[in-house]
Amino acid sequence: MAGLDKRVASYQEALDGITDNMTVLAGGFGLCGIPENLIDEIRRRGVRGLTVVSNNCGVDGFGLGRLLETHQVSNVVASYVGENALFEQQVLNGSLAVELTPQGTLAEKIRAGGAGIPAFYTATGYGTPVAEGKEVREFDGRHYVMERAITGDFAIVKGWKADWYGNVIYRHTARNFNPLMASAGRITVVEVEEIVAPGELDPNAIHTPGIYVDRLIQGQFEKRIEQRTLRA
Length: 232
Hints:
Blueprint: H1 11-14, E1 23-26, H2 36-45, E2 50-53, H3 65-69, E3 73-78, H4 85-92, E4 97-100, H5 103-115, E5 119-122, E6 136-139, E7 142-148, E8 152-158, E9 161-163, E10 168-169, H6 178-184, E11 185-192, E12 194-196, E13 215-218
Parallel strand pairs: 1-2, 1-8, 2-3, 3-4, 8-11, 9-12, 11-13
Antiparallel strand pairs: 5-7, 6-7, 9-10
Helix pairs in contact: 5-6
């Protein structure tokens, strides 16, 4: 049973093996459910030339935005990038490449990668710049664009609760892209708020089965609010 224990003792151990020019899949949506401590460990390590796949790229000074500050990211695959001024600057000066992808297509590309499906067809993006250079086929009188699946060298994921074996539960909207990313990483690292003993989680409540998880660590989280809206 000891061999099934996915817990690691430090963030250094959690990201052991990450090197320059790797592809990193990062869970989260905006600042909700982001693996903030794993991101900080990547920054501390100073690895460079990373391709980051995420719904967005954090904000200035927090989340994945911290990796932009240190110029560790060379390519971003995302569906939304509008909350980061530094991101805009680096794209405009040519130091950062971005592949904007429709949000549903991005989710399906990652899901397909985790399922071992190399490509799929979608009508989304046909007739727009999204489809440029991609194979197009017609099915039942409608045109579809072929999209390649996405996998990564590392997947960094934020969960709410997990057991020693890496079975993970996400909380409410913090679930977002995290289960997809967890399935598509060659090495999947999950940080959670609480780790419990085996048998304490309801099997019917598990969102990511432990078979997808390689390393597990418990952390402390800031949980910033990205856009605070108050009633007048």
